[in-house]
UniProtKB/TrEMBL annotation:
FMN binds at G13, A14, S15, T41, S92, I93, K94, T95, R127. Residues 6-169 form the Flavoprotein domain. The keyword Transferase applies. The gene is ubiX. This is Flavin prenyltransferase UbiX. Flavin prenyltransferase that catalyzes the synthesis of the prenylated FMN cofactor (prenyl-FMN) for 4-hydroxy-3-polyprenylbenzoic acid decarboxylase UbiD. The prenyltransferase is metal-independent and links a dimethylallyl moiety from dimethylallyl monophosphate (DMAP) to the flavin N5 and C6 atoms of FMN. The keyword Flavoprotein applies. Belongs to the UbiX/PAD1 family. The lineage of its organism: Bacteria, Pseudomonadati, Pseudomonadota, Gammaproteobacteria, Enterobacterales. Pfam families: Flavoprotein. Dimethylallyl phosphate binds at Y157, R173. Keywords: Flavoprotein, FMN, Prenyltransferase, Transferase.
Length: 193
């Protein structure tokens, strides 16, 4: 019997919730055989309503499994529950700081901590600019712990025509870090191809 592949998607309250929403949409619509587990914070719900006009129900329907952000007894809070890892898109500075401190007061922080201790992939789409030295040092610390820091930076060499093209390419790159191949047409082949 084949083991179920699972990916935890965390959406924090930073601007840019569209990245997490797009990741959930790709996982659901591309028949990738990956079960999505969503943790969305209260602040993220406010931000998603403001930026995308999405209500809680519409967001929850995109995930296979939804966990309350305060449910420390959730399946994904245990290292014995197998996942590919965790994508936090976007990742606020507050969430990043909680993860780096190891003081996990929320389910997103707990699952990120479990992901690191189990040597699974943790990808943080940090959404802040400009960055001060404390932010940068925290990112270095998390990288030393094994996290991947991936700010959602647009790639113009793919000639995006819409904002969604930019978001899609960025999310596909993030999913590739988990071995999830959502779109091979976005692979860079070099200037002469």
């Amino acid at each position: 019997m084949q083991q179920q592949l699972r990916l935890v998607v965390g959406i924090s309250g930073a601007s840019g919730g569209v990245y997490g929403i797009r990741a959930l949409t790709i996982l659901k619509k591309c028949n990738l055989n990956v079960e999505s587990h969503l943790i969305v914070t209260r602040n993220a719900l406010i931000t998603l309503q403001q930026e995308l006009k999405m209500n809680k129900q519409a967001i929850y329907e995109l995930a296979d499994v939804v966990h309350s952000p305060q449910d420390m007894g959730a399946s994904v809070a245990s290292g014995s529950y197998p996942t590919l890892g965790m994508l936090i898109a976007p990742c606020s500075i507050k969430t990043m700081s909680e993860i780096s401190s190891g003081v996990t007061s929320s389910l997103i922080g707990r699952v990120a901590d479990v992901t690191l201790k189990e040597k699974r992939r943790l990808v943080l789409m940090i959404r802040e600019t400009p960055l001060h030295l404390g932010h940068l040092r925290t990112m270095v610390k998390l990288t030393e712990f094994g996290a991947v820091i991936m700010p959602p930076v647009p790639a113009y060499y793919v000639h995006p025509k819409t904002i969604d093209d930019v978001v899609f390419y960025t999310v596909v790159r993030a999913l590739n870090l988990f071995g999830i191949n959502a779109n091979t047409s976005s692979i860079w082949l070099g200037i002469n191809h």
